[in-house]
Amino acid sequence: MTEKEDQLGHLSDIKNMMEKSSRFLSLSGLTGIFAGVYALVGAYLVYSDFHIIPSDTARVSYAEFITSGNDSVMLKIQSLFIIGAIVLLLSLVTGYIFTKRKAKKQNLNVWDSTTKRMVVSLSIPLVAGGIFCLILIKHQVVGLIAPATLIFYGLALLNASKYTFNDVKYLGVLEIILGLVSAYYIGRGLLFWAVGFGMLHIVYGTVMYFKYDQKK
């Protein structure tokens, strides 16, 4: 029985080594939590920026403004992109810090061939989505920007999930579904954006933290 247990233990070790060599396992759940918090703060700032535009009778809401065709829409979109870029930068920096810390605990390299493949798989849909959003801005179809970012982000997660935790795949599917629903409700994109990039990230990050990080 002892010999059999030893063999099973060796097989388990081999399996773990193969998994570590083929998948990026240093992704921390804390990254998702912080990214979600940053996104919610960014969404609040964007909403506040849009919401303070006065009209003849009352304040104009985000939904009314984004569908109004107002000439100042483009200026507000620039503000949205600046806030979005700050949120993205903070998320990337935070993600790198937590990933590096987790990789150090696991005695793994942060940047290896698996990480490179994952980054490439993630970047292709993201770059395509970014270009598509610029095209939407050029044609002033701003109501579809939020849905497009959710859909392309979801596709990016799906594409990269084969190089990391399978849980990433489910987050990607939820982002795509949310983006499609958002595309139907034009003018409510900021709300869906906050749910997709904010709340879903926090829930996903919390699950990942207790499922994987706490075991280390």
Produce a short descriptive summary.
The protein is an all-alpha fold and 216 residues long.
Walk me through what this model shows.
The chain has about 220 residues and is mainly alpha-helical. The protein has one domain (about 30-215). About 75% of the residues lie in helices and about 0% in strands. The protein has 8 helices and no strands. The protein has helices spanning about 1-20, 30-50, 60-65, 75-105, 115-140, 145-160, 165-185, 190-210. Helix 2 (about 30-50) runs antiparallel to helix 4, helix 6 (about 145-160) runs antiparallel to helix 7 (about 165-185) and helix 7 (about 165-185) packs antiparallel against helix 8. The two termini are about 30 Å apart.
- Name the overall outline: globular
Number of strands: 0
Average residue pLDDT: 78
Give the structural class: mainly alpha
Count of the domains: 1
Strand content: under 5%
- Give the fraction of residues assigned to helices: over 70%
The helix count comes to 8
* Main pleated sheet: none
Instruction: Report the order of strands and helices.
Output: HHHHHHHH
Rg result:
21 Å
Amino- and carboxy-terminal Cα gap: 29 Å
Unreliable residue stretches = 7-22, 52-58
Write the layout of secondary structure elements.
Layout: H1 2-22, H2 29-51, H3 62-66, H4 73-106, H5 113-138, H6 145-160, H7 167-184, H8 189-211
Can you give keywords for this protein?
0% strand; 216 residues; mainly alpha
